[in-house]
Predict the structure of Cation:proton antiporter.
Amino acid sequence: MITMCMWFFFGNAVVLALGEGIDWPAIVLCVAALTVVRILPIMLAFLGSKFTWRERLMVGALGPRGTTSIVFGLLAFNALPDGRYADTALYAMTLTVLGSVLLHGGGSVVIARSLTGPPPSAGGGPGSPGTDEPDSRAVATQG
């Protein structure tokens, strides 16, 4: 129930932000939050791990922004004095979460494919339709 209320307030912030127009500082903060600010700390956190650079980049690029960003964005908006800074904080949070929903909702498949390579072909392995080679798992369970 609390999450539904939070998304309700977020929807109101979206209407407010898009209705009043968005300044360039909020757009810059949004782009930074969805790229460098998200990816760089994850790349650093994975230093010394077994993950490849491509896998690290995928984790950083696909990390969604949502509930936490809304909570901290609303806290910043309420803590700042009314005016330009509070509005920029609210609009940046709104654009960042909305951008994340669009990017990660619709673009996650494209991002994942571009970072991991093409999907395996449907007719290439043992046990695939059109091949004479039996699937080793099926042979093991029959014997």
Summary: The two ends are 54 Å apart (CA to CA).
